[in-house]
Design brief:
This protein is mainly beta. It has a single domain, classed as Roll (Pnp Oxidase, Chain A), CATH 2.30.110. 7% of the residues lie in helices and 46% in strands. It contains 1 helix and 9 strands, in the order βββββαββββ. The strands form 2 sheets. Strands 1, 2, 5, 6, 7, 8 and 9 form a 7-stranded antiparallel β-sheet that branches. The protein has a two-stranded antiparallel ribbon with strand order 3-4. It is extended.
Amino acid sequence: MPTGARIDPYGAYNFLVEIDGITRAGFQEVSGLDSTQEAGDYREGTDPLTTRKLPGLNTYSSISLKRGFTDDQELWQWRKKAMDGKVERRNLSIVLLDDAREEKLRWNIREAWPSKWEGPSLNAQGSDLAIESLELAHEGVEWAS
C-alpha cells in the first residue's frame, strides 16, 4: 500500500494578532473564535407532527486576548475610549503560522471594540507573570487562507 503525504496539524502556540492601529500587542492566548446560528422552530398547519428547523441569526462570541502586563497602555486607552462612550471599532486578524513562522491561516474579525478589560491577579506568594486580558465584541469572523 503506497504511503500518502504526511500532513501534520499546526501548533496552537504559533500565532500573531494584528489589530488596526495597535502597534505593540504580542499575545499569550487567544480564544473565542466561533460562530453560532440558532435553529428556529416553524410549523404550518398542514405539516406532519414535527417542526421544521429554519436558520436564524448568526452570532459570534467575544474574542478574548491575554498577554503579559507591561507599561504599554495602548490596549487600555482603546478600552477607556469605549468606557467614555467613544467606541472605536477596528478590524483585526488572527494569523496561524507554521513551524517556519510562515502564514498558513488567517481569521479576519470585523468591527471589533473592547467590551471588557481585566487586570492581573496579584499574589505576593506566587511567581506567575501578571496577565491582562481584553474581550472584544465584534460583528463577524471570516476564514481566509
